[in-house]
């Protein structure tokens, strides 16, 4: 059976469903295709982010943060409780309930905006025809004026440690442990590895993180990464081993023995569970027919221009299947941009103002250039930093770890980057995003009135510190 649409979206993650809703709101006859089935055989909407990524991991992070606070932090506030216990099944049930509520919400939003939903695997064929193969083998053809590819990504697997869904798992499996592992190994000290390692460490696991790179969080600003490494290892007890390249693994009954190489030679460690979190790769398998005309780049991403056009006129790609950071909010903004372009609007996206967040505790967030990038590019800059230890609200909340760091152009005073390590960094970084989006100067932030007492006062003071004007710390002596 054949159907005709002005816009067909393949994939219902944050990039896909947002694109479909926006296209429908702009008056386009829109359809969306999703293949993801729940255990009960029903289609679930929202992609990796809602089902096994951003949302469930944050639910567990918050639950584990509260547990850790009860165990280690209540006494500081004068709150005396009996030894807290963690009910892992109940924690997981809460997480699953949140996921169900949000995925059902996406389905409702698609329906409410008039987007036609098709359940099955979508494949783009020649002439912008999308074939949808249902779970029962049924086939439907969607003829589209425009196609938006938003299939998302899947975890990267490495030959030395193939996952088995039991003892050796990927990021999805790490969200489903029925009990707290006594000893947990994590391969990869990136965003996913740190977040998942933090969850189970707070709940009582002895966590060892094996990272092949010699530098911790190479994408982050060096000063922020240094602060974070110290906090995670010395204060929180994560055993993060840099320069540790995993070379093999072997099941030992209900445990796994991992072999790795570091500066001292070959070593082995035994874990109750092992999480492979070495990154994600674009999911395009079976989604593009040979005659579709869509080209991939050398890394397997769909090749697109700055406005997400592929090599086929009328076919766009957004989210994790294209270049740039694999971030839900980045994909959503690309989806909106493409929908507006299809509707005839002149839409652009500012890729220089996309925030990055790692939801550990404290959180790590940044936007714009790092100090290392500015040095490499030969840009003359000035910087200012301010510690949360000198912020009254941080003291009251017992969240004094970390700092805010702001970088600005030495000649124009334009804000070039903001970097935060501290409680609530994911919320505060929006101030940096707005500053970059509106080409603000450091002086703009200096002249802004920040509420007191708030954590955000650290942003104000960091901006003041750029020009040696900080009020609540001693400034550098002028030469």
UniProtKB/TrEMBL annotation:
Q: Where is the active site?
A: 452
Give its localization: Cytoplasm
Query: Which Pfam family, giving just one, matches this sequence?
Result: Pyr_redox_dim
Enzymatic class: oxidoreductase
Tell me what reaction this enzyme catalyses: N(6)-[(R)-dihydrolipoyl]-L-lysyl-[protein] + NAD(+) = N(6)-[(R)-lipoyl]-L-lysyl-[protein] + NADH + H(+)
The Pyridine nucleotide-disulphide oxidoreductase dimerisation domain covers which part of the protein?
Answer: 354-463
Give UniProt keywords alphabetically: Cytoplasm, Disulfide bond, FAD, Flavoprotein, NAD, Nucleotide-binding, Oxidoreductase, Redox-active center
The cofactors required by this protein are:
FAD
| EC number of this enzyme | 1.8.1.4
Q: How is the cofactor bound?
A: Binds 1 FAD per subunit.
What the entry lists under InterPro entries is as follows: Class-I_Pyr_Nuc-Dis_Oxidored (IPR050151), FAD/NAD-bd_sf (IPR036188), FAD/NAD-binding_dom (IPR023753), FAD/NAD-linked_Rdtase_dimer_sf (IPR016156), Lipoamide_DH (IPR006258), Pyr_nuc-diS_OxRdtase (IPR001100), Pyr_nucl-diS_OxRdtase_dimer (IPR004099), Pyr_OxRdtase_I_AS (IPR012999)
Gene Ontology CC terms, in alphabetical order: cytoplasm
> What residue stretches are annotated with the FAD/NAD(P)-binding domain?
6-335
Q: List ligand-binding residues for FAD.
A: 58, 122, 320, 326-329
Residues involved in NAD(+) binding = 188-195, 211, 279
A GO BP term here is:
2-oxoglutarate metabolic process
Q: Is-annotated flag, keyword Nucleotide-binding?
A: yes
Q: List the disulfide bonds.
A: 49-54
Q: Does the keyword Manganese apply?
A: no
What molecular function terms (GO) are annotated for this protein? Answer: dihydrolipoyl dehydrogenase (NADH) activity; flavin adenine dinucleotide binding
Give the miscellaneous note: The active site is a redox-active disulfide bond.
- Family under the similarity heading: Belongs to the class-I pyridine nucleotide-disulfide oxidoreductase family.
Q: What is this protein called?
A: Dihydrolipoyl dehydrogenase
Organism name = Reinekea forsetii
Highest classification ranks of the organism: Bacteria, Pseudomonadati, Pseudomonadota, Gammaproteobacteria, Oceanospirillales
